[in-house]
Amino acid sequence: MAELASLVQRLEVAVGRLEAVSGTGGADGSAAGTGAVSAYVEAFDALISGSVAEYIALSQKIGGDVQKHADMMKQAFSCQRQLLVTASCSQKPSDAVVTSLLAPVSKVIQQVQSFREQNRSSPLFNHLSAVSESVPGLGWVAMSPKPGPYVKEMQDAAMFYTNRVLKDYKEKDKTHVDWVKSYLSIWTDLQAYIKQHHTTGLVWSKSGPVASASGAPSAPRGGPAPPPPPGPPPPPMDLNQSAGGDSSATSRNALFASLNKGADITKGLKHVSDAQKTHKNPALRSQAAPLHTGPRPFSAPRPTASAAPALTLPPVLELDGKKWKVENQQGAQGLVISDTELKQVVYAFKCNNSTLQIKGKINSITVDNCKKMGLVFDDVVGIVEVINCKDVKVQVLGKVPTISINKTDGCHVYLSQHSLSCEIVSAKSSEMNVLVPGKDGEYTEIPVPEQFKTVWDGKKLVTTATEIAG
Length: 470
Fold this sequence. Notes:
The protein is an alpha/beta fold. It contains eight helices and 16 strands. A seven-stranded mixed beta sheet has the order 1-2-4-6-8-10-12, with no helix packed on it. Strands 3-5-7-9-11-13-14 form a seven-stranded mixed beta sheet, with no helix packed on it. A two-stranded antiparallel sheet has the order 15-16.
């Protein structure tokens, strides 16, 4: 009777688990009639109804491209929630199936990034860039064993652009300031969520059916529904009692006899000659099985051999409203912008092996994604920004208050006598040099530090450039 009662109890547990993951359960991962979800899905719902909802509401208030971007982000979090529901009630499948389950989130991430690239002329471009640079943080579900630090890196990438938003709107519109706070809090809350529920990676259920590519529990094609998950394990076997007749007792006795051999237990092992060792016989390496690799983090799909070649966009040099556009210039050594006004800005994008001279006084200059680019200008009242560039040279003939260098490898800045008080701000860049003119007109080249030392002085962190920096 005791065994029968135990069997009935295990059967009830199995039926309960089956109801939670079968068609009788809700599509949102809740058990039928109970509305219950797993603890970490419930915690993710709290994140969506909190900082994510606040970000979407403020984006709708701002409107325009920011609202469209927020709608995409809302879909991304919805797709991620569905993945968490699947993981909470299913065992982890093969890597190929995991990759297919990650596909919906990956697709939305690519849409978010493409939207930003298609709207570079948007007046809300900094908002779009903040979201586009950090949205890969949703790929934490494919990261192991440290998804939390990965999300922190994506949040840091967003802050470069959110700081611009704060600079532009801090004294103008509080809505944009609140938007920045709400958006950054999403990634802060997500890090706390990961630390509590998925410290070393996405947690899959240890019971239940294995997840399929469709996100539902897998079942044989044309066959019955999958069997219920196993109940609690049976009690430990009593080694003093034979459970399988004489054969079980004989097997156990043989096992104990082998263990009692001590060092002699290795005498039965087969000797492996040098010809059978892969590290001494290179011919065997090609026969070895390929190394097992897990799913890759989210990234844009690699183009196949049959894919169409990348389009070469036509060069652009035009005034669009208050913005001078200089785009897709290749090998153009004599570009000149002379008819300028104080309210105008210059935006140079994807210009390679080219030089650009700007005459007169303008508001600001941005050099983005350029290689081997030379820039010469007279006066700028705002800022000169160099972003995502390689091997660029910037020369100021008049005055400029600030030059910003970000994510750039190789940047030479030539200052004039009138611009020696210029502030140079750099981040995530290398091979930076500032050339200062002397009394005889000769330039002195000074490297910008790239290596720093930080110490705690008892009250705050103190950071100084190291002597070997540069």
